[in-house]
Amino acid sequence: MKKFVQVLGFVLIAALVVSCAPSTVSTPAAEVAVDVALKLSGLVDKGWSVEDLKVLPMTDADYTNKDGETTTYNGVGFADLFEEAGIGKYSTVILIAADDYAIEIDQKTLEACDTCIIAIGEDGTLRSVMPDMQGMFQVKDLVALEVK
Hints:
Helices cover about 25% and strands about 30% of the residues.
């Protein structure tokens, strides 16, 4: 009888250990989340990885900082991005950085800037490049756009 109780206890402990073990269910490749580098929300909900952005039409934009230094950036024009997302009319766009810095720009101002782009850095980070606009519109580490 004592041996039976010991065996039963062992079986129960083994069952408990097996039931608490982590599951090893694999996720099909189609369900694996893509790293979203830029999230679009508001009128349309969409996200792009850096690789997704690189297949869109790319353009160069020069930006001169407050010290007079000019840098050439390469990236996707806002108009091309909005066209790809199916956005026509909107009133404003809020540019949002990873640190929650945000700035709003109206449609008229943004559409008048044919050289305004979302630049893709060599390290994969994004930034808005708005030539001839104040520094507050040059959003570093851009992660989201909210279109209203």
